[in-house]
Each structure stands twice: as C-alpha cells, then as structure tokens.
Design goal:
151 residues; alpha+beta; Beta Polymerase, domain 2; two-stranded antiparallel ribbon; elongated
C-alpha cells in the first residue's frame, strides 16, 4: 500500500498538483502581453484585462517550481547547520518596471520567482554553494548580487 502523499514524477506531491498553475497561453501571447505591460494601459479596457490575465497566469505558473527549489535549498541549508531561506514571486508592479528598463520579454524574464538562502557567515555560504554544485539537479550558473550566488 502506498502512503500519502503519493509522489508523482519529479517528486511532486498529489496535494500540490491542485496548486500547480499550467501556463494557458502561448509563448507569442506571453511576449505580446509583456510588450503591452511596458506601456501605459488604458483602464478599463478588454485588452488590458486580457493582458493582465496572461501575465498573472505566467507568473503563477512559477509558484510550484519555486516551492520545490526552496524545499531543496532548505534541506541543503539544514545540512550546513545554520541559515534560513526565503522565496517570493515578483510583484506585477516590479515586473512592469523591469520590462520597461530591460531589453528582454516577459517570456525571457528569469527572476519572476526567486529563492535565497541567508547564511550565518561566508564559510557556511561557500559550503552551501559547494553542496548545491555537487548534489543539486539544478545548475549553479553565476554569482548573484552582493557576492551571493544564483541557481
């Protein structure tokens, strides 16, 4: 007999599947919504409502993957011994501001969801990075802000 939570592929618990938002729009629609979000949208307007509906769906589709990444990061932080993790979805106002100043599209935006580990000292942070490089299925690809690291 299998006990709950029954695990689905990639260790996604069935209970979490209810929270999983599937992107409902094409890449073309997400890119188009991002282009409209860069400008000033008239309100109320059917186009504006649809634009935000597409953008909110795209943003929400990053929630479950972010939770899984945070769970992995939290487990690694516990192996190191001291530290804490945090995670967040980027606010829509921040998404719009970034689209206005950056050359990429909403579809290409890489920080819609983010996780971080706050460690007690640099040695713990370095050990965590080494642990992630060695044991994570994700790739540590570049240094982040303030001397940190991004996965």
């Amino acid at each position: 007999m299998i006990s709950l939570p029954f695990l689905w592929r990639d260790s996604v618990a069935i209970e979490e599947m209810a929270d999983f938002v599937i992107p409902q729009y094409s890449k073309h629609q997400v890119v188009g919504a991002g282009k409209l979000l860069k400008g000033s949208l008239p309100w109320p307007c059917e186009t504006t409502a649809e634009t935000f509906k597409i953008a909110r769906n795209w943003r929400a589709a990053h929630l479950v993957p972010m939770r899984h990444m945070r769970a992995e990061l939290t487990a690694k932080v516990k192996k190191v011994g001291s530290g804490m993790t945090a995670a967040r979805l980027k606010r829509m106002t921040s998404i719009r501001a970034k689209l206005r100043r950056a050359p990429h599209t909403l579809y290409q935006m890489q920080d819609i969801a983010g996780c971080r580990a706050i460690m007690a000292n640099q040695d713990d942070a370095d050990y965590l990075v080494a642990l992630l490089r060695r044991e994570s299925r994700h790739t540590l690809n570049r240094p982040g802000i303030a001397g940190g690291h991004s996965v």
